[in-house]
Amino acid sequence: MGAQIRQAWERFVSDGELPGQTIRDVVTQSWKRSAGFHVGFNRRLAPMVEEGELHRRRTGNAILISAAAPALGRSRTFLADARSMLILTEASGLIIATEGDPRVVDAGRANHLELGGHWHEQQIGTNAIGTALAEGAAVQIHGSEHYCEDVQRWTCAAVPVKNSANGRILGVVDISGRVESFNPQSMALAVAVGGEIESALDRMLRMEHEVLLRHFLMKRSVWLNEDMLVLDRYGLVVHATKEGGSAGVWKESGMREEVQTLPIPEWQAELRRREPNAKIEFVRQEGGEIGAIVLLGRPQAKTATRSGASSLRERVVLFSDILGKSPAMLAAKERAVRLSEAGLPVLIEGETGTGKELFARAIHAQVRGSQAPFVPVNCGGIARDLIASELFGYNKGSFTGADERGREGRIVAADGGTLCLDEIGEMPLELQSYLLRVLEDGIVYPVGSQEGRQVELSLVSMTNRSLAGEIAAGRFRSDLFYRVAAATITIPPLRDRGDDVILLAGHFAELAARRLSKAMPRFSEEALQAICAYRWPGNVRQLRNIIDAAVALMPGDDIRLENLPAEVREGIPVNVTSAAGALRKAEETAIREAVEACNGNMTEAARRLGIARSTLYVRLAEYGINR
User: Fold this and answer.
1) CA 100/CA 98 separation, integer angstroms
2) CA angle, corner 424, sides to 284 and 277, nearest 5?
3) What is the 3-class SS of 439-500, one letter each residue?
4) Which residues, 6+ apart, have CB-to-CB distance to 174 below 8 Å?
5) Judging by DSSP bridges, how do beta strands 453-454 and 458-463 pair with one another?
6) Which tens digits make up the pLDDT trace of 473-528?
7) In angstroms, rounded to a whole number, what is the distance separating the alpha carbons of residues 128 and 76?
8) Is-contact 106 113, C-beta < 8 A?
9) Distance between CA atoms of 569 and 530, rounded to whole angstroms?
10) Among 252, 478, 481, 513, which has the highest number of CB atoms less than 10 A from its own CB?
11) pTM
12) C-alpha dihedral over 27, 30, 32, 36, to 10 degrees?
């Protein structure tokens, strides 16, 4: 049979003669596609992407690699005796993981059957990976059935890995070995591993959906009257607030199909292009985006700007998402208001976890309005060889593995809005001159292009390190510093914010209780003493995490000392006065002010306070507040 296939292949590549019934139809159709792609039958190597692009692809498919990790780990031993290797690709056929017999893995490099190799039919003709993608089904390709002659040394069995919710192909599992080691059980193994990965993905996605829904519930009190969508990492609707509202717009506009083909960071530009009034907030977990909350169709009223605020105190209200009444925080808020009114590039300094991005978003809302794009870029979270293309974008064909359509960079995505550069001190020195030119000229040149695009945006930068020290060390350009730091705001650490720690602890406890469907927590005297005495090196972020855990652990309605971690418990001083009384007084004052501001409208007052109306009535009775 092998000789017949070889003879049919020779006739096909020499004179285009279609093989007869001796060749499987799936192979015949693949040969025809390969010829249509103008793949040379003497092509020996699949194309390879550069290391930086491989890193980006692997990062973008981290959930797929994680789901495959157990099978990859087992294959180190169970495939060694079978003289085979297990291959995992992403949806385009690019190899993102390999494991198995080291001799076979090494042999694969001769044809770029290795990390970074691109095995779509369009690249290397008929092969199990590419043909499984084309057919959308499990395929085994053996020896001379491969289109490229040098690849005919391989025998491969591949199965697509699909998203069970919409049937979309997420990647391919392939078992490959030298042709002389052909094993008819390879296909069964590939199918079994593919099923295992799909099951693991389902479990992971269900967990991510729970995180997305919790985030939605937190935002619901802020966007109470808005029609909202919750999207998972694949652009699928997890929840919609109103049937036929945004969900209908999302489906009918074609945005659903478009977004499902794009990485999450590119959703904002696509939404903005199709729906200028759309608003999107990404949901992150462990440093990566897992989905988004989207508002479509109904524009929100813009935040008041200079012309709409009669006093500094009223304008500071624009920063209401930032809790804190300590002198240090009020001073920071007032400074932020004044500087944002001046329209200057702002550098926000502060330790990790102090809330720098909250200030950045508040400045953006005051200067540009909530509907304008706010585009954050973590300069320390992008690989050095990718940050140029992420910031400035690139033209098609700019480098190996580049998107055929090119890609819009983050700076262009921020046009008309705010570019927020987080950890700007981490930006590679060689790119700082390019950023400086963009900021001075307002023109972006994508990688690989001589044609620039005019942009107009506000700039907010953030850092947790001393840029003056970075300049002295030769790691940061002084001219860029003066361009991004026309004005600076220093966010105080939590340990310098006095009673704000009490206010924040109560706020986070209330939010956590709502998420967990528990009663509003109370703090024991000892717990509050410990919270007030602790130095909080991780600042507000650390406080929130600890309060979240404490609420989850509390046996009843009280957060007790034993519900706090050891490092907090050990900081109790003997001279701390009754913090519990201070917390209750702050709560009573907040409730009185809210009820008065809403003219007795309990529904509106509860919404402003971020608590249930039933909880508000309980507190009114406790404090003797007349309704």
Assistant:
1) 7
2) 50
3) HHHCEECCECCCCCEECCCEEEEEECCCHHHHHHCCCCCHHHHHHHCCEEEECCCHHHCCCH
4) 86, 87, 88, 89, 128, 129, 132, 156, 157, 158, 159, 190
5) unpaired
6) 888 998 888 888 878 899 999 999 988 999 899 999 988 888 888 888 889 989 99
7) 21
8) no
9) 6
10) 513
11) 0.49
12) -160
Whole-angstrom distance, CA of residue 553 vs CA of residue 545: 12
pLDDT at 580: 46
Residue 518's φ and ψ, nearest 5 degrees, are -110, 165
At a CB cut-off of 8 Å and minimum separation 6, what does 358 contact?
321, 322
**Quick one: tokens of 491?**
């966010």
Taking every pair of Cα atoms in the chain, the longest distance, rounded to a whole number of angstroms, is: 95
Q: Hey, what CATH topology would domain 495-623 get?
A: Helicase, Ruva Protein; domain 3 (1.10.8)
Q: Rounded distance, CA 292 to CA 233, Å?
A: 8
Contact present, 305 and 368 (Cβ < 8 Å): no
Q: Which among 220, 213, 234 has a CA at the least distance from the CA of 290?
A: 234
Q: How far apart are CA 269 and CA 416, in angstroms?
A: 12
Question: Quick one: which of 226, 254, 252 has its CA closest to 240?
Answer: 226
**Mean pLDDT by 10-residue block, N- to C-terminus, for the chain (627 residues)?**
87 86 90 94 95 89 91 86 92 95 94 96 96 96 95 96 87 95 87 93 87 75 66 84 57 63 76 73 81 67 39 58 86 86 85 92 86 87 75 70 69 92 88 85 81 88 88 88 87 92 90 86 90 91 92 86 89 44 65 81 76 69 70
Residue 247 vs residues 66, 212, 217, 602: alpha-carbon distances, Å: 31, 16, 18, 31
Architecture per CATH, 306-492: 3-Layer(aba) Sandwich (3.40)
**Domains of the chain: which residue ranges?**
2-203, 221-294, 306-492, 495-623
Query: Which CATH architecture does the domain made up of 2-203 adopt?
Result: 2-Layer Sandwich (3.30)
pLDDT at position 296, please?
Answer: 67
Compute the distance between CA of residue 125 and CA of residue 147 in angstroms, rounded to an integer: 5
What value, to the nearest 5°, has the Cα angle with vertex 568 and ends 563 and 570? 105
Strand 458-463, strand 418-422: pairing: parallel
- Residue 357, CA atoms < 13 Å, CB-side half-sphere: 14
Q: Mark 565-597 as b/e (b = at least 16 C-beta within 10 Å).
A: eeebbeebeeeeeebbeebbebbbebbeebbee
Q: Kindly state the tokens that stand for 272.
A: 């903005």
The alpha carbon of residue 472 and the mean position of all alpha carbons in its chain are separated, in whole angstroms, by 34
Phi/psi of residue 542, each to 5°? -65, -40
Residue-by-residue DSSP string for 537-597? TTHHHHHHHHHHHHHHH-SSSEE-GGGS-HHHHTT--SS---HHHHHHHHHHHHHHHHHHH
- Give residue for tokens 């909350």: 293
